[in-house]
Design a protein that fits this description.
Layout: H1 10-15, H2 25-45, H3 51-70, H4 74-92, H5 102-108, H6 110-138, H7 144-174, H8 186-208, H9 214-235, H10 252-284, H11 294-327, H12 335-355, H13 362-385
Helix pairs in contact: 2-3, 3-4, 4-7, 5-6, 6-7, 6-9, 7-8, 8-9, 8-10, 10-11, 10-13, 11-12, 12-13
Pfam family, one: Cytochrom_C_asm
Subcellular location: Membrane
Keywords: Cytochrome c-type biogenesis, Membrane, Transmembrane, Transmembrane helix
Amino acid sequence: MTDHTKTVPEHALLTQKSFIRSLGAADWLFALLMAAAALFAQYRMGHRMDAYETAILWSSAATAVFLGWFFKPMRWFTPLTMLLAYAAVVLYGGSIQNSDGFLLKFFLSSQSAIMWQCAFILFALFAYILGAAIAVKQNTQSNTLLGMGTVFGWISAVAGFTGLLVRWHESYLLRPDAGHIPVSNLYEVFILFLVITALMYLYYEGRFAVQKLGGFVFTFMAVVVGFVLWYSVSREAHVIQPLIPALQSWWMKIHVPANFIGYGAFCIAAMLGIAELWAIRSEEAGKKSWLPQSQVIEEVMYKAIAVGFLFFTIATILGALWAADAWGRYWSWDPKETWAFIVWLNYAVWLHLRLVAGWRGRVLAWWAIIGLFVTAFAFIGVNMFLSGLHSYGSL
């Protein structure tokens, strides 16, 4: 594998611009826009917000600014989703009865936006698979279909995040005294999961130029889409319900998103593990692989697990603080907590073996794949087969 790392002389480090000084006018304009949006939200909704929610609002604005500085496409993604969601708010005009309007019914209501998200995930999957097949046949690195896969992936993320924001507003229209952030049940968190997974993959795709891996990641996302559609039809999970008492806490607003950044990263890593095994097999057979080199895939997998581990650790700490607030103790070895610790330990060992022991290749790829099943059981299996303090999260 070609080493693209450049050695920077020590004296050059002294002359490098700081991160802040390297920001351009567009970055500061974006920061100003996010601050203005937060001010507007506080002006319109401040009477419904306590001190904690105000802190979360401004923390979210700061996070959006950082993401926009770090991942440039977020500078248009965030304002666009906010604009679309606000358009839906205006169209509702304070009454859920206006949901039969053309734009709301077919595009901007939460359910229609989420259905567009599901559709474009499938479109992206087909584009990535067909694009990769054509790239192999033509011996090229990219083509129009792979580019379309990227575009469809972005559209799915825009539609999904817009749907969540609009669903938040709809919950207040339906139940003014019981409105809540849409991360309270399995349906809502799976939509959030699809948004986070798409955004994380698109970042790594742009960072490492690995469009051919899109088919692996979006295959798993398509499976989740299938579950979301089944769950909506069979259980009417898309219907907005009031929060149960156990979830009526501001801790939920920060614990759940952090958790699902971790889940999204671990799922991406598992799909990349499959791709790495495929690439290793081709390399050992002396064949020219249509995939990126296995070392490149493993590097992306390592980055994903490192980010996922960080946010899962933060989510676990936040969960302990929430437990102390709700139940009077930080940790109870409840089945959900126990399996969360198992997931954390699994990826802690993975990172240790790679960074300290120097492990590489097939073992870590298989480990990442098996880790997906451990994570899935911790998230869904515990709720289905075990009971405890978190039994309210069942299917």
